[in-house]
Design brief:
The protein is mostly helical. It is 98% helix and 0% strand. It is built from one helix and no strands.
Length: 103
């Protein structure tokens, strides 16, 4: 009877050990699955952030280029305006000199 009881206890202990091991494996699989899901989510967020930053950088570059082109156009308009003014002043001075010469 003692041998039978020892055998039952041994089988019960083995069954419990097997159950504990299966639970540990299941938990390990669950933890791994959760870790994989977190890693996948973090990767996606990083990619989204990088894409957004790239788009913002491109927009900033386009804006800067447009501002530079506008400034260059404005400078050219100023230069032409100044040139016209000087040409007009030269023309008026030449007319005055011509009128003075005729007198």
């Amino acid at each position: 009877a003692a041998e039978k009881k020892a055998e039952v206890l041994r089988l019960a202990a083995a069954a419990k050990e097997q159950k504990d091991q299966q639970e540990a494996e299941a938990k390990s699989k669950k933890d791994k699955k959760e870790a994989d899901a977190k890693a996948k989510k973090a990767k996606k967020e990083a990619e989204t952030k990088a894409k957004k930053e790239k788009q913002e950088a491109a927009a900033q570059a386009a804006l800067k280029k447009a501002e530079e082109e506008t400034a260059a156009k404005r400078d050219e308009e100023e230069r032409l305006k100044e040139q016209k003014k000087m040409e007009e002043e030269a023309r008026v001075a030449a007319e005055k000199a011509e009128a003075e010469r005729k007198r």
